[in-house]
Amino acid sequence: MFISKCIKYYLKRLAKFYCIISIGLLIIAGFIYIKYKPLYKVTLNGEVIGYVESKEKMQEKIEAFANNLEGNVTSITIEEMPKYELELVSDVKESETKEDVVLATVKEQAEVICKVYAIKLDGTEKAIVNSREEAEQVVSDIKSGVNSEINVNLEIEEEEKNKKEIDNNQTTMEVAKLNINKDVQFQVQEYERKQAESRAAENRRKQQEEKQKAAQASSKKGASAPATSSGMFMRPVTNAIITSKYGQRSSGFHTGTDFATATGTPIYASAAGTVIYSGTKGSYGKLVIIDHGNGYKTYYAHCSALYVSVGQSVSKGENIAAVGTTGNSTGPHVHFEIRYNGNTLNPQNYV
User: Fold this and answer.
1) pLDDT digits (tens, 9 = 90+) for 300-311
2) What H or E segment, with its residue span, contains residue 100?
């Protein structure tokens, strides 16, 4: 009887103890529930990118993104998938679920390939647009504003590019037209410049032909220049031979007479006058021009040295330069011209 009472006593005390323990555990559990929250810590490439409540829902969102091939997207590759680890997280307000942050990070690191249309000028990419229709419209609008004689080499090429590269370079139709037009206008200006140079060269050629024809007619008829006084002009050099006469030759019309002799041989003024040019001039090389008045001028070309200056008065037979081979010359000689009112005359008719 005594033992039975003892057992009942201790069972009551044990039950009371377990009750106290249970209440304590419930209090502790309640504290943990209030203080801590079970969340999944998400890491990507070893870096914590956020916390989510459900890894299954998070994976569903990631897979939905990876399978969303809308518009011009051709493929989405996620090389590294997130890893999840369940934790009890305190300070829930600061560690709230961040599914949007996790998804944005996954998207940022994913490789998204898109189909685009590149517009190229002479093989160099100038703009990227979304569709072939947009690209064709840009090319058509640009070419419509350019002279059809100008070959504007614009091409459209379908390409696949990383979306990040596209975002950095993609343009609207208007911006694409503006950017490409800058380079096209440069080509137009170059074309117009070359055309102008070609027309100017053709005009110079025609003018030269007309002058040569006038000079030829003058030398044949003897009517374009008045008769000179006897002995007005003398040979510009002594002891020289004529290597090329005035008139037509295989390379073109020769506007003077070439007197060949040794380099350094003195060149004399063919008649008295005033020096109006002394320097280097294109194919003439070193050149002296003397104005003798009454429309007459004489030229002394290919000199090795010049002894007179512009404005200087010279007398007939005065040493004005030395024979050389400067300019367009195949050997030492003096190219001698006589001109009347700008037209060349045959020197052999006057010296």
Assistant:
1) 999 999 999 999
2) helix 99-109
Q: List 42's β-bridge partners, or say none.
A: 50, 84
**Residue 94: CA atoms inside 13 Å, Cβ hemisphere, count?**
5
pLDDT (tens digit, 9 = 90+) per residue, 201-254?
888 888 877 777 665 655 444 334 555 544 689 999 998 999 999 998 887 899
- DSSP-derived pairing of the beta strands 286-293 and 319-322: unpaired
Gap between the Cα atoms of 80 and 301, Å rounded: 82
Rg (CA), the chain: 49
Query: What's the CA gap between 146 and 186, in Å, rounded?
Result: 12
Output b/e per residue, 162-194; b: 16+ Cβ within 10 A: ebeebeeebbebeebbebbbeebeebbeebeee
Question: How far apart, in whole angstroms, are the C-alpha atoms of residue 297 and residue 314?
Answer: 13
Spatial distance between the Cα atoms of 220 and 214, rounded to a whole number of angstroms? 10
Contact of 334 with 302, CB cutoff 8 Å: yes
Cα dihedral 51, 56, 57, 60, rounded to 10, equals: 120
The class of domain 241-349 in CATH terms is mainly beta
pLDDT of residue 223: 39
Alpha carbon distance, N-terminus to C-terminus of the chain: 171
CA dihedral 77, 79, 85, 91 (to 10 degrees): -70
Q: Is the pTM of this model over 0.90?
A: no
| pLDDT tens digit sequence for 115-153 | 888 888 888 888 888 888 888 888 888 888 777 777 888
- Rounded distance, CA 174 to CA 140, Å? 13
Q: Which residues are 337's β-sheet partners?
A: 299
Domain ranges within the chain, ordered by starting residue: 2-109, 113-184, 241-349
Helix (H) or strand (E) holding 16: helix 2-35
- Of 197 and 308, the structure prediction assigns the larger pLDDT to 308
The contacts of residue 22 (CB under 8 Å, 6+ apart) are none
